Amino acid sequence: MELKTQPVLWAFFLMLSLWSQVCRSVSVHFLDPKPLYVVQGQILALHTEIGITTKEAVPTVVWERVSPDAKHPVKVAEYPGQAPDKRIFIEEQGAVLKITNFVHADSGVYTINVTDHLGRVASAQHIVEEYMAVHHVSVMVNVSHTSLHCKEAWGTQPVFSWMHEQAKVDGSHGRLSPDNSTLFVTARLCGLFTCVVSNRLGHSSATYTSEPCERKGNGGTVAVVCLFLLLIGAGALLFLLWRRRRQHRSRGERLREYDGPL
Ligand SMILES: *[C@@H]1O[C@H](CO)[C@@H](O)[C@H](O)[C@H]1NC(C)=O
Ligand SMILES: *[C@@H]1O[C@H](CO)[C@@H](O)[C@H](O)[C@H]1NC(C)=O
Ligand SMILES: *[C@@H]1O[C@H](CO)[C@@H](O)[C@H](O)[C@H]1NC(C)=O
């Protein structure tokens, strides 16, 4: 039994060693692939994971950036090496890049290039943008389809919400688009609508004023109250008339019965 399994085991180990030779290459990827938004003055931190099988040889790492208004990449930092700027820090053997006191010029596409001792290169890219406050909120009305569109200029990750008069808009006013920026009004379009756009840096709002809701509502109520009073008045009048007739008739009957004053 042992003699039979041994060749299989040997073959397995041979395959494993061959496989590890082939796959012994360098790799790098960002831990969070989503674009990174950084508020001015805060810390930009890019975390990568470098995969390398030969631990004895430290790879060299180069960080570059292509700014939106520049065509060519600019070297930001390298490892091993000295950071060119006091704001720039390299950690974990080049796998982590940190830039303190973020300014708009720090945004762009960042590239990390990792080169192992055999000259093989792995690289990965990441988008870094400035986190912008909400600007220029406006509300447009589509009268033909009774919908209200809320727009915002360039804020990062805007979150939309609506108010009608002082209350939060709910299902009774209408339907919201998936991103909440459009309100399809199903009830009568009246009163003051406010669109509030917010993000991490604050909020801004705009309003749309249509004809007042109260006037027509009050008018209707007044009409109903008037009609009600009129009906009561008419009813009372009829009742009084009926009572008078009845009294009249019963007096006449009594007069006839007793034939004289009481
Ligand atoms: C980094 O890698 C990219 C893509 O592989 C390449 O275009 C660029 O020239 C490299 N930069 C350096 C400094 O090696
Ligand atoms: C109003 O909304 C409808 C449906 O979404 C659209 O087809 C139309 O162009 C809009 N009108 C205006 C003036 O935006
Ligand atoms: C839209 O608004 C509803 C409730 O007002 C909220 O639960 C939902 O998360 C909002 N969606 C977006 C994309 O902001």
What would you say this structure looks like, in words?
The protein is an alpha+beta fold. Among the domains are: 24-130, Immunoglobulin-like (Sandwich); 138-209, Immunoglobulin-like (Sandwich), CATH 2.60.40.10. 26% of the residues lie in helices and 36% in strands. The model has no long low-confidence stretch (mean pLDDT 85). The structure holds 2-acetamido-2-deoxy-beta-D-glucopyranose (NAG) (3 copies). One 2-acetamido-2-deoxy-beta-D-glucopyranose binds next to β4 and β8.
Topology record:
Blueprint: H1 2-22, E1 27-30, E2 36-38, E3 44-51, E4 60-66, E5 74-79, E6 88-91, E7 96-99, E8 108-115, E9 121-130, E10 138-142, E11 147-151, E12 159-164, E13 167-168, E14 174-176, E15 182-185, E16 192-199, E17 202-209, H2 213-258
Parallel strand pairs: 2-9
Antiparallel strand pairs: 1-3, 3-7, 4-5, 4-8, 6-7, 8-9, 10-11, 11-15, 12-13, 12-16, 14-15, 16-17
One 2-acetamido-2-deoxy-beta-D-glucopyranose is lined by residues 159, 161, 176, 179-180.
**CATH C-level class of the domain at 24-130:** Mainly Beta
Name the CATH homologous superfamily of the domain at 24-130.
Immunoglobulins
The bound ligands are: 2-acetamido-2-deoxy-beta-D-glucopyranose
Q: Main sheet, how many strands, which sense, barrel? A: 5 strands, mixed
- Rg value: 41 Å
List descriptors:
262 residues, alpha+beta, Immunoglobulin-like, four-stranded antiparallel sheet, 17 strands, binds 2-acetamido-2-deoxy-beta-D-glucopyranose
